[in-house]
Amino acid sequence: MSGILAGKRVLVTGVLTEASIAFQAAKVAQNEGAEVILTGFGRLSLVERIAKRLPKEAPVIELDVTNQEHLDGLADKIREHQGEDARLDGIVHSIAFGPQGAFNFLEASWEDVSTAVQVSAYSYKALATALLPLMHPGGAIVGLTFDAQMAWPKYDWMGVAKAALEGTNRYLARDLGPKGIRCNLVSAGPIKSMAAKSIPGFEELADVWNHRAPIGWDLADPEPAGRGVVGMLSDFFPRTTGEIVHVDGGVHMMGA
Fold this sequence. Notes:
This protein has 256 residues and is α/β, with parallel strands linked by helices. It is built from seven helices and seven strands. Helix content is 39%, strand content 16%. A seven-stranded parallel β-sheet has the order 3-2-1-4-5-6-7, with helices on both faces. Helix 2 links the parallel strand 2 and strand 3 (60-62). The N and C termini lie far apart (46 Å). The model has no long low-confidence stretch (mean pLDDT 94).
């Protein structure tokens, strides 16, 4: 199969519904020639059903990024699917979570904040190091962020967690660069996904895009962000690392 990911093997985390950016990234990756493996957490049967809606059904591995045993065994789980020549050319980190308390900046407990930071930021490093044995020079790791340059309405400690993710990406790019592995983030605009339903006041946050995206933004269309992820996985950016690529309709450049 031809395409910009022809012959590549990619792991995609965070697929839950067809409305997720992760699903679109997996779909576009397959259409561009990649072999895809998914991970799921919690609602594994749901992820397995969604995996059947891809152009080619993808295997699903259970992964809780806060469970060290899961991380320690992840490479072996991939080997079970790929055999002796197991390898990964790309990893998509689409994992974020904040307890309800994390969406109240002044009243959030450290327990709420630490959970948001561990799941949304530290897991980026944890996933990368767990899969290093399968990665080779020329590989790429791509995470999804939500622009942390500003204090967005209602986003509160999740915004801080995304700032931590963006910092983690820079340090990971520094340390994995000598191994020939690129690390970049795609900063997407808000999408009406299942994850968005857990954000109190999501509509107020999303309304910023309705008024300020100069090229327009469709809250119901995760495909542009998915395409951005696949672009960064490809060999078209061989010397780009530690970057944040905005796929947000241009809102990030509009200022206060």
